[in-house]
Amino acid sequence: MNDTMAASSNRIMLGPLVAAIDQGTSSTRFLVFNAKTAELLSHHQVEIKQSFPKEGWVEEDPKEILQSVYECMDRTCEKLTQLNIDVSNIKAVGVTNQRETTLVWDKQTGEPLYNAIVWLDLRTQSTVERLINKTPGKNKNHLKDKTGLPISTYFSAVKLRWLMDNVEKVHEAVLSHRAMFGTVDSWLIWCLTGGKNGGVHCTDVTNASRTMLFNIHTMDWDPELCIYFDIPMGILPKVRSSSEIYGLMKISSKLKSGPLTGVPISGCLGDQSAALVGQMCFKDGQAKNTYGTGCFLLKNVGTKPVMSDHGLLTTVAYKLGRDKPACYALEGSVAIAGAVVRWLKDNLGIIQTSTELEKLAADVGTSYGCYFVPAFSGLYAPYWEPSARGIICGLTQFTNRSHLAFAALEAVCFQTREILDAMNQDSGINLSQLQVDGGMTSNRLLMQLQADILCIPVVKPSMPETTALGAAMAAGAAEGVSVWSLNPEDLTEVTSEKFEPQINPEAESELRYARWKKAVQRAMNWETIEPVNSGNEDTSIFSSVPLGFYILGSMFMLIGAKYIAGQKLA
């Protein structure tokens, strides 16, 4: 009894709590933190189904995404109550989300007009190729000065354009001014603040900067970019800072999360920006790498955007208050990291669980010359090559599933090495260590491999939920909430584990990396939408005069030889 009373009195001393909705590509989570200590008190996670209607298409159901948020909030509130923690101590909620994923819904009915087109989706490849071919010099960086981004299938503008061109419901809703566009953050905030009954239609600067419609210098939607993609500005959400009160939660009293009604949603960051904040990378030059569905290396470059000469993106890192300056980041984006584990499990069936991959790979400790380039959605940074496709090479009769498992882990590390090299070249200053986070960092073999391949230490925080932590920090620090201090002296010291390189950097590591680069070249230009010969060029063999003469001459010689043979037999 005394123990129970002691636990109860401890809980009363917790002080203000801040929650975060972390809506990722493969799962949704709701997490609750102590605003004074940054301790994670409780959380719940729900997996999200992905559908692949056609080759290269990736979709998710917006209603399922929303329902998963409600489920996670309900279950977490239930767990808090069981822990004797008062849910009413939650003073703010932050939102962090998979970026670029594109939704359109009807503001009158609140219904989605199509599935969410996920950031990995490739259906817009032909649109992208046409846009690039129309630019002066066929330059994929034509819009980079304004957006910081290349023209790519990755970003929201081309996905929205596809929806307007190919989905009748979307086309009609745009014409009748009923359509609302948003990335996942906008959809969730709109729904959670009332939806069709007064929901707030907004996004933050970090998510807006991933659309190709946002000017990273003016920090607002760009009329010229909207004209370029022929997208009406009226369907776009209002752009806000990453830390301010957007609106108040409206939750049904029937739900266990009903007590959250009236709590402000006051933080919003795209998942990679949230991880940068959660890793406390507030100084120019600090960087982190997140291993999730994809892999994303971000480096804080301060209050002035830096353009990359080596295939990296320039993006908005955060703007922590309406009157605070925006900070920018250089970003290296890799499409497939954790997704390769899911592919080995769901598509090939060579593992039953994600944890099994580490054991399989550890059994052999080498790929035995097997290299795996998982370019399922083309190659992102530093190549930006949508025509690339996945390739496994260097196979022998000796190769088995353990070697393939090892090669899959190495692929994640090699892709990180490529973007780190690009970042070092752009900044002229080499990173001395790499801060990491994300679901895959629980794989200790992967972390050691990463240190070996980068030839620098890899530092993993003991609390891995840095993305959600970043969203909670932004929410708790917002004006009008102010329960979380972001002053450097008040930030909690993060405990971490360090993985040191263990192989000879000049020999084995460089040899393996060189072979990987060779494999990447093999994966290039695999799937092109445009025919090799465009226009009215004659594609017949006779379009080459010498070749035509040669083939015709050979045919006549064969006919003549048959005729002579026939005469002799007669």
Automatic annotation (TrEMBL):
Protein keywords: Kinase, Transferase
Protein name as annotated: Glycerol kinase isoform X3
Organism: Danio rerio
Gene behind this protein: zgc:172295
